[in-house]
Amino acid sequence: MSNFFRVRPERETGEIITSLSALKRLVKKMRKLEEFAFDTETNTLQVIADNENFLIVGISISWGKWNNYYIPLGHRREEDFENQLEVDTVVSYLKPIFEREDIRIIGANIKFDMHVMKRIGISIKTKDLFDVVIASWICDENTPNGLKENTVAKLHFPQTHFGEVLETVPKEVKKQFGLKSNSKPTADLVLIEDLAPYALDDAYYTWELYIGFMSLLEEEKMDKVYYKSYVPFIHTLFNMEEQGVTVDFDKLKQMQKDIAVDIDQLNYELTELAGVEINFGSTKQLSALLFGYNPMPQESEKNYDSKYEKWEEVNDKIVSHSFKFKVVEKTATGNPATGSSVLWKLSKMTYATKRKQEGIQFVKKLMEVKKLSKLKSAFIDGLLEQLYTDKKAHPSFNIIGTDSGRISCSSPNLQQLPKAEEDDKYQIRSIFIGSIDPVTKKRKKIIACDFSNLEMRCLAHFSRDKNLLEMFREGYDTHGSTAVNMFELDCTPNEAKKKYPHLRQAAKIINFMLMYGGGAPTLYDTLKNDPYSPIDLGEKHYLEQYHCKDGVEVAQVYIDKYFKSYSGVADFMKKQRRFAHKYGFVYTILKRKRRLPDINSHDMRKMSYCERLAVNSAIQGTAADLTMNAQNRMMNDPWFNEHRAYMMVQVHDRLVG
């Protein structure tokens, strides 16, 4: 790889704009520019919508080592009061520059800074954006892609980290602003003279990285996909984030109260069933209650007389009330496992004795309390903490959140909202509602649209497998077709879901497991532990039918049958692995690379993992590419503006609007 980056570049100037005359001189220079880099400093990361606590602290601008400027705006210490301009004044002068549509604006995580500028009244309108963090990722997704990591890796210059700047705030200043001495201060409490060098460097090194990445993108042949797909995607996600999702705030608050009551009631009922008070979060106490597990003390424990005697007393009491279930699984240390899969298996058992029946009730209630506790902490309490002033959720979508190309979501993560059963009391998805239409004044409806079997279609496209192609051409249920082929069912593919739902579910697992290179042990375990419809291929009738000694061998029989039915898929996978071994990467449909540096490793585990990625990345990465381009097209489709429709959330191949 050629070195397109300057080694240890340093900025030669750094002007702090503290007067109107200096601001006017800066703006006069910027009117002639075709491109510039910028960065912002704030007192909070919650900048996606109006936030009453938001404060912009400063703006830094750079277009080379001789042109670097820091505009302080929100430093709150008395020493700085006379050394900064009013925000409204700065906005009035910068607005015509930043809102130009014929200029290239450069940033690092630029979407965040676009939100910051929006909060002070400046809308970045140019389509010609450049984000050095996304450029870094698309040039090599396997390395750290942040600004600081890139200045070290590409420019060989170790930048000051933000934490070091915050350490300049004395304890007495923290106390003055109501913070504890060990609390982390925010940027507004840092003096201008301490924050300015850091802020100036952020903008300057963003500029330096930009110069290098322009050439590196071309060398990696990633420039077309970057400019054509990823740059527009910044605007697409920015608009989605700004729009946000309306939350039924009153319903959410009531849900928070109700679920707390239900959790308390369940904990009471659990104690009643147990017959003894225990810590339900303690694996030791839980294994004692469920299995009567009472391990001999270790020598080190014996020496801990008071602590051990207390534990021995508690443990003996719990064991005396044990349900005495047979141990289902063991941990690596040999102790009984008490995780969710074990509880689920116990909940499906039936017993004649009263105590064991009570034990099954206990397990089911314990599963419920764990489910509700997670729901409360992650999706109710967590959501309430992250709502903005407008009572909306404004999630942040990260373009480089995964190696595959799928975007990730945070603050809050609306891609992982639990899907409740119809009879579940707490339907967390129901608290997200449509906003009020500004024209009709009626509440809009939320619509979710997704691609039909997108990844299977990508597999059919790449493999050209005749059975897969026929399946889509004839409109067959893809998983139903696999079920018919694998289990020799007496029905059509489209009848399988209704007639043999458990086998169709197994076929769905087989499709995705084998698409992504899973082996026989993984397939066996996944089918056996499927929470919806478990199938144990180690059961007697499977072993006798296929003349196998265990369930893993039966799983291999199904793998062989799968690739016999879909021979084109088998050939595609072989070609992908060969290509990866030869070139060290594979392509998605947009010719985006997925680099596999360990594909030729002598470590078989690393090599096998990369071989699976060689297949997975082409399919899943292509699905991500197609979804991204669909979103970009939708964002620019006049129909959506005409009907005041907009996208709010993307969940992989599903769009919610």
Describe what you observe in this structure:
The chain has 657 residues and is an alpha+beta fold. The chain is built from 26 helices and 16 strands. The chain has a six-stranded mixed beta sheet. A hairpin with a 5-residue loop joins strand 13 and strand 14. Helix 21 packs across helix 23. The two termini are 43 Å apart. About 2% of the residues have low confidence.
Could you provide a short overview of the structure?
The chain is of the alpha+beta class and 657 residues long. Strands 1-4-3-2-5-6 form a 6-stranded mixed sheet. The protein has a 3-stranded antiparallel sheet with strand order 8-7-11, with no helix packed on it. A 3-stranded antiparallel sheet has the order 12-16-15, with no helix packed on it. Mean pLDDT is 91; it is low at 299-309.
- Biggest β-sheet description: 6 strands, mixed
Distance between the termini: 43 Å
Shape label:
globular
The amount of helix comes to 40-55%
In DSSP terms (H or I, runs of 4 or more residues), the helix count works out at 26
Q: Helix/strand-derived class?
A: alpha+beta
Number of strands: 16
Poorly predicted runs are 299-309
Mean pLDDT: 91
Strand order, sheet with most strands = 1-4-3-2-5-6
Question: What is the gyration radius calculated from CA atoms?
Answer: 30 Å
Percentage of residues in DSSP E strands: 5-15%
